[in-house]
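Table 4 source record.
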Amino acid sequence: MKISKNDALIWFDFFAQLPEEEEVNVKHEEIIYSTFAQIEAAIDYRNDALMAEIRNLKTLGNRTFFVGNESKFPQGCRSCLLGTGLSAIRKTNRCNLECKFCYNYGELGDIHPVGEGMWEIGGTKFYGKDIDLLLSIYQKPTGISYVYLEPFMEIEEYYPVIKKFSDAQIHQHLYTNGILATEEKLKALGEAGLDEIRFNLGASGCSDKVIENIGLAKKYIKSVGIETPMTPEFFEAFFAKKQAIFETKLDFINCAELHLNENNIANYSGENIYISRHGYISPIWSRELTLKFMKIADEENWDLAVHDCSNYTKFARGLNLGSKAGMLFGASNYACEFSMIPYEIFIPILNDDNFKFLHEEELPDAYKPEIIDF
């Protein structure tokens, strides 16, 4: 069923007005899924055209796309997509910024602490002294990452734990917005054995201070890069500071496709939104900008890796993790982050005269909008 854009708009206007407690029926689901498929097919067509313009586009085992120097492609991403997955370690429950794209937007003051002196690994609480026990029991992962809010709020706590995993020869990477980094602290991270650090440069609007800290990090840590949700603001700010950023000698740029959850979606009200494989929900401009960014990187022959960390990549990540964890064939953790689909967010794209469905068909009589009982 290839629903027309006009019929989809009428139906989604109806779904958006349904009371929260009212469930859609099977025919409604068919309408909804047909609309999602129509939107996604049109977006794939547009993105495929953009990708075709990138002369030297490369893949990592068909699991993601990148351009540039393959030797600088981040090992943490290789672990995530080819190894035993992304083993996340959580410690810090605070941040020094509030970014509109943050998955915890609006609730940063309400994040529960992990516990004094404790670390959350695989959903379990550990003291630093327990890590030797953990490593003696579990097969060691190909890589781990320090995620969740801003680690430089208490970075001194990280050094001994990083040292333990370094001694076990496990690749480690850490995320930061970079504002609180100093040369002393970056040096200490390198000495502890941190392999890779990723700066969310978009969080600071590509501030000069953070760019300087990227350069300092490169003195002490082997692999240094940028990982930022691709937004129009970051795209513009990056090119305004491009030369200064390149002078840091960074190794990679991960352009993350911005995906939305119940915390940050209100910040993107009115944007053209789509849902990928009934999972992540994103503004359509995020990956489009990434592909345009990669085309420029390829044409200008940047000496680094630029990675398209898209919803497709996240889908592949979930499958890789599921396979390594011995889950059922085809099982993954890739899923929609909304408890209920917010139908109203798809109204703008269905209203946009410049966004066309590729093919449209007349609905069967039983599915026509005229059957709606308002």
